[in-house]
């Protein structure tokens, strides 16, 4: 009954096997391994983007910060949601990699950026000429930190506002697979067809040991990205072990199978929670994260049964939690959690 | 017959097995996995340093750049060898992580820093008061880029010069295991007993997929390091897979077995090369890197047999190469190479 | 009738004379001029701070950014008002000089930071451990961007909240003189007695060509500041011309005379505006900045008479403006403006 | 008898007068003063560059560092002379403003970069692909730190090597006027006609209080420069006082008159020194800096007469000095110095 985070799950056996297979003999280092050639083509096919530049890094923070640094000058802004991962959970990595760009926080319910608020924030920015920071880029997150999902239309609306102001668009897809499963959209629909220029395509939260792809649909700044990656210490010499994981992830739709299980378990858990008296959900459950609230006392009952999750602040008399399901969550975990909660 | 680099070798089966074992169930993320607790203690024991702060990162560039940033202010210098990895092969990562510290290049034969040159460089630095950059720290490399080894006494001599000027000392130990095997020194003798404050303890070049430890003997700046690591994107959520590799590396002296094989193969190769007429070695072969020079024509012969290595510039009529052995180099590779060279 | 900004005014004749006097003969460069020795002592006396480290720079942005960089690590935050000059008008200079620290915006009416909001912002910051940026320092502005003034008590309240969390306190005193005149407080009461660690003590907006002092009451990080100043290009070789201006500014209370005239003209203007039907003031007028609002049509009338000021956005049917008085504003300017407004 | 530095001289009366004249009434801030419009046109005329972007800053370090940051990416290099001011005397300002670019030091006699050494340094740089820093720009200094002068031909030779490799060229002209006077070249011949893209056109060392122009012959990156200038704290609100100084400097060839006097005094001093037995000059005296060497004992004699200058290291039995003349050096100073030296 582990619901603390999808980054605490094991990896599926296919990933271990892929590492073992990739381990044979010598391989050229620094991304010149044949596995990377295959991964590049698989991702280009998947995104229907035959020209895309594709790179692998090991953490989501890296994928985001390097992509943003390539899209945003030091004296510019990144427009992002108030509670975006890049704003709250990366210890200032975007500021570090951009050499001090400013994150402009844009509000919106349930983790989704409000289009009107985005437009206003863009309008306000740079209006003071040389005295203020200048407009840089937009970063949208899918799945959001609130566990909600942006549809391609919603992304297109936000990206359209940015592009109308001349700004490139980044998608933080640490849970891209969960968003794809939730919406039924294709990767192309969710990204470049909706106006996205660069994607952090997550693998780690959905079953890899630590692999994320960064995809630029326009390869114009690919070389700059490569230099930034190396300079940041993120170019792996034994790169084949990143490639192997990503190849296994994409092969036979494994990435979608994994995300489907995570989302399914979240849906079951949401259904079960909703049926319990006194239990409410702060945000719509659209992917694999839930924010339930219940009456005081349940934390103790749950922890007594070994449930692991992060408690959240709640009003007096109530308790709240963040629950995350993953590819390895089993129905029995959900049932056990609900039973413990029921008391 | 692969002698291009030790970063192109596979990993030993123990590493794959360790990953499989570590893959069971859930594990706390971000270095709070029990495997990291074991690794920390193993490294403290190995270095006889019960208070040491120990961290894992995935690349050598990261280990070096983060360690240096913790030891050196932006307006200070890093004293290093003219051909140090941090100076020539990291695309400015030390400058990036330190926010612009200056690498002061110190010469010395065969990749080893000359003590007199170091003393002069330190004396010169900061003499202009506020107008020039200030003295920062010393970084020594062992094994050097020339394939030579610093003995503990030599490190102590260099570190002593630095410490007399109040400067902390970093050891880039990307091939630390090879240096230990070459000298017979203990890890403590090679580091803190010789005046070293922080070590990049390499695993990747000696058989891991991508794991390096950073060790601070004085834990005073450990929290700063943790923040810099996160901010740099180098804190792994599924950290257990780093821990598992390092644990397997240290268990039963595997790390020394691997390095012994690499060094042994280099010694055989050096012996064989020396016996060939017209073949010379630019630097003493003390670990697992060789810089042979031979008469024109051998490149073609070697490549025809499938030998892989990096050619080097050479005088007219001659050819040169850099050859690197690793834990996976077999005697047959050495024999085959020598046979092809013999022609 | 120039009310656009106090940075468009000329300098008083004493400043020109001081430059002429300082121009005799040779003077040691880089702050070693005897004038700087006198300035240092004058400022220490004025602030009753015999140990204070005192430096001169040429712009307010520099004074703020260098002071903040000395007080705040790259992975930390600067707590400041939502509309602080450092947040809106310095093109990211604080982010640049700190190497990417994050400005956390704290709300509050009329340009003054709300103590409760500050406490909440501090409580929120760093709560996520290594994943989020850490608490850095507090920056308070006096006079505020809204033209209001913090009393020493109000500064002490804000500083007390910061210091209880272990955070140092910076005061952006670009209009320090106007705040002193408005409150009747002594410089010591307004700063270190209220818990302030470092001050940007402005001269430029109050009659100098471009001179600001940075004062650290604890000189512990003075040398770091000197290196940062030089590295930022802000150490003047012919420093005597900065010293001479500041000396003239402080001599015989000139700085207070200048600020008194500015505040007096603002008070007269405020009184006149308040007496006009349909004219309102958005913020209390406590120093030398006014934010009046009036019925549509007045802009045209005012501009026809040659009045210069910045219009501000206003609701339909209304117009708004920012008016700034300075030492060189004459009563006739105020009367002329009011007459034109009256129509 | 002050020969310590040209930055210790007073300013000529024309500069004080210009400040007094510029002080009348209100002036638009931040470079929108009419004086700046005049200065821009004067500099464009002087350099025969009607499209040039022209900016004023207050220090030479700033002019250099901002120009270089606009010409060089963080992962690139600045090729400069081993003893260039940007390498030795700016406390790492270029590294700070470029966010960590690397200065590659190129040797050459008497402060002039050796063309062959430059070609080799460029060839070496970037050869390692993504692992090493990339070629950025060339920075040449005129007058050099050794007091020698580059002719337009010599600059064209160096610039030609850089441009053949696709690199832009910066000229550090802190003593540009002295170089112009020494060579008789026109400003255009010394800069864009010789392949220079951007110039730091110094005023401070040649008689201004603290004003340098930065000139870009191609205005493409002018807006970036403006943002970097503001973000660095180098945009003056009361900009008219910079403009006024520069205008006075350029009017009626004042800048050349000042430099002529400095160079003339240096030539006389050199002539006098050469005539003395046992006195040698380390570098040709071509502008206003001299590096004499003499027998032990003269320092004491000179200082007894009140001569002020910087002593330099010298071989046993000898003493050395750096002497700098300026616009305010009088023939009597030269005579007095020589008399004291003669003993």
From TrEMBL, chains A, B, C, D:
<dbReference type="InterPro" id="IPR026273">
    <property type="entry name" value="Low_specificity_L-TA_bact"/>
</dbReference>
<comment type="subunit">
    <text>Homotetramer.</text>
</comment>
<dbReference type="InterPro" id="IPR015422">
    <property type="entry name" value="PyrdxlP-dep_Trfase_small"/>
</dbReference>
<dbReference type="Pfam" id="PF01212">
    <property type="entry name" value="Beta_elim_lyase"/>
</dbReference>
<keyword id="KW-0456">Lyase</keyword>
<dbReference type="InterPro" id="IPR015421">
    <property type="entry name" value="PyrdxlP-dep_Trfase_major"/>
</dbReference>
<dbReference type="GO" id="GO:0006567">
    <property type="term" value="P:L-threonine catabolic process"/>
</dbReference>
<keyword id="KW-0663">Pyridoxal phosphate</keyword>
<comment type="function">
    <text>Catalyzes the cleavage of L-allo-threonine and L-threonine to glycine and acetaldehyde.</text>
</comment>
<dbReference type="GO" id="GO:0008732">
    <property type="term" value="F:L-allo-threonine aldolase activity"/>
</dbReference>
<dbReference type="InterPro" id="IPR015424">
    <property type="entry name" value="PyrdxlP-dep_Trfase"/>
</dbReference>
<feature type="domain" description="Aromatic amino acid beta-eliminating lyase/threonine aldolase">
    <location>
        <begin position="3"/>
        <end position="290"/>
    </location>
</feature>
<dbReference type="InterPro" id="IPR001597">
    <property type="entry name" value="ArAA_b-elim_lyase/Thr_aldolase"/>
</dbReference>
<comment type="similarity">
    <text>Belongs to the threonine aldolase family.</text>
</comment>
<protein>
    <recommendedName>
        <fullName>L-threonine aldolase</fullName>
        <ecNumber>4.1.2.48</ecNumber>
    </recommendedName>
</protein>
């Amino acid at each position: 009954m582990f619901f603390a985070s999808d980054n605490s799950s094991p990896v599926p056996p296919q990933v271990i096997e892929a590492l073992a297979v990739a381990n044979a003999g010598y391989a050229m280092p620094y991304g010149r391994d044949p596995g990377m050639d295959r991964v590049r083509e698989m991702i280009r096919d998947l995104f229907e983007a035959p020209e895309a530049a594709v790179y692998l890094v090991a953490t989501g923070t890296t994928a985001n910060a390097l992509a943003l640094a390539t899209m945003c000058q030091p004296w510019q802004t990144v427009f992002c949601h108030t509670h975006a991962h890049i704003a709250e959970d990366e210890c200032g990595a975007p500021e570090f990699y951009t050499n001090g760009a400013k994150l402009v926080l844009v509000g919106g319910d349930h983790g989704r950026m409000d289009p009107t608020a985005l437009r206003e924030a863009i309008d306000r920015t740079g209006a003071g000429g040389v005295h203020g920071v200048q407009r840089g880029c937009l970063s949208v997150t899918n799945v959001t930190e609130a566990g909600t999902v942006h549809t391609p239309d919603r992304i297109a609306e936000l990206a359209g506002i940015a592009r109308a102001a001349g700004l490139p668009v980044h998608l933080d897809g640490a849970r891209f697979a969960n968003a794809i499963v939730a919406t039924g959209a294709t990767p192309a629909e969710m990204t470049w067809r909706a106006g996205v220029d660069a994607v952090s395509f997550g693998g780690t939260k959905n079953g890899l040991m630590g692999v994320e792809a960064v995809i630029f649909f326009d390869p114009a700044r690919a070389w700059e990205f490569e230099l930034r990656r190396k300079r940041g210490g993120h170019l792996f010499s034994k790169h084949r072990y990143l490639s192997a994981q990503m190849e296994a992830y994409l092969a036979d739709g494994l990435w979608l199978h994994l995300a489907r299980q995570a989302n399914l378990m979240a849906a079951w858990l949401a259904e079960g929670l909703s049926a319990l008296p006194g239990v409410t959900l702060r945000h719509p459950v659209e992917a694999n994260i839930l924010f339930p609230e219940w009456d005081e006392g349940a934390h103790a009952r749950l922890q007594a049964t070994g449930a692991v999750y992060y408690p959240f602040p709640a009003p007096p008399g109530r308790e709240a939690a963040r629950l995350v399901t993953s590819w390895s969550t089993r129905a029995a975990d959900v049932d056990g959690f609900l039973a413990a909660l029921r008391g």
